[in-house]
Every structure is written in structure tokens, then in C-alpha cells.
Amino acid sequence: MQIWVDADACPNPIKEILFRAAERVQLQLTLVANHGLQTPPSPLIKAIQVAGGFDVADNFIVEQLSEGDLVITADIPLAAEAIAKGAHVLNPRGEQYTKNNIGQRLQMRNFMEEMRSSGAVTGGPPPMNQRDRQQFANALDRLLAKLCQGRENKEST
């Protein structure tokens, strides 16, 4: 199991939380973006720069991830593809996407995209605040505890 990050739009405070978590639970953390990224020196943390272009980083993540991996992204279509491959998905505000809610999220995303293209809706989500960062950190800790417990149970059998 490893953690994949759609790093093009991932806020820096969230990356910092992920760096600490990867070290704490000893999981490989891979950030994927179409621009260069700074990462702390660690054998567990790496950054991959992909070519620029629409969904290039997303496609790379989907191609590389394995069942049971964790993907951090706010990109709903990427989340849907990752879930279809058996990955766990958490957005940078701490919401977990699952088979049970991803269809609804895709529909809402498509609806909002139509509204924006017609000029009816402008702007995006509010800026990330301390509460959002704490919510993400808590959700990540809960999910990693659950996933690492499952990994330990598999290794002991």
C-alpha cells in the first residue's frame, strides 16, 4: 500500500500533513504534478513530474496505483477512476470518496460545471482554513489506522 497525491492543486499545508504521516506510518508517499515539487529528504517521499497537459498527472496516478492504495485528490473524475481500481480516496478537506458517494459527487460536479459555463455560477470553494486542515489530518489518521491495521492483519496470516 502507498499514498498517491494529485499534487497540482493540493495545498501546501496538506502536503506537510502527508509528509509527517508517511514517516509516522512508514508508507511510500508519491506526489505527482506537471511542475517541479519540493519534498523533504526521505526514502519514503518522492515527487514525479509529468508532462503538462489536461489530466496527465491524473492518468499517471490511475495507471500506477494498486488496489488498496490511498489517493489524495479533490478531482472527482480521478477519484471515481481510483475507486473503480479499488483504491481509497480522500480529498484535501477530509472527505472520503467511496463507491457509495462518488456517483452523486460526479453528478454534482457536472451540474456545477454546466452552471459555470453558462455564467450562472462563478468562483470555487472557499479558501482552506485551519479547521479544514484539522479535519483532513483527523480523517487521514483514522483512515491510515484502519488501512495499516488491515495490512498488519494480512501480513500476520
What labels describe this entry?
six-stranded mixed β-sheet; 15% strand
How would you characterize this protein structure?
With 157 residues, this protein is an alpha/beta fold. The chain contains 5 helices and 6 strands. It has helices spanning 12-25, 56-64, 76-84, 102-117, 130-156; strands spanning 2-6, 28-33, 45-49, 70-72, 88-90, 96-97. Helix 1 (12-25) links the parallel strand 1 and strand 2 (28-33). The mean pLDDT is 89.
Number of strands: 6
Q: Describe the main β-sheet briefly.
A: 6 strands, mixed
Task: Give the structural class.
Answer: alpha/beta
Order of helices and strands: EHEEHEHEEHH
Quaternary form? single chain
Cα-atom radius of gyration: 16 Å
Gross morphology: globular
Number of discrete helical segments: 5
- What percentage of residues falls in helices of 4 or more residues? 40-55%
Across the major sheet, the strand order is 3-2-1-4-5-6
What is the average per-residue confidence, as pLDDT, rounded to a whole number? Answer: 89
In the predicted model, the low-confidence regions spanning at least 5 consecutive residues are none
Separation of the first and last Cα atoms = 17 Å
- Strand-residue proportion: 15-25%
Task: Summarize the helices and strands and which ones pair or pack.
Elements: E1 2-6, H1 12-25, E2 28-33, E3 45-49, H2 56-64, E4 70-72, H3 76-84, E5 88-90, E6 96-97, H4 102-117, H5 130-156
Parallel strand pairs: 1-2, 1-4, 2-3, 4-5
Antiparallel strand pairs: 5-6
Helix pairs in contact: 1-5, 3-4
Concise account of the structure shown:
By secondary structure, the chain is of the alpha/beta class. The chain has helices at residues 12-25, 56-64, 76-84, 102-117, 130-156; strands at residues 2-6, 28-33, 45-49, 70-72, 88-90, 96-97.
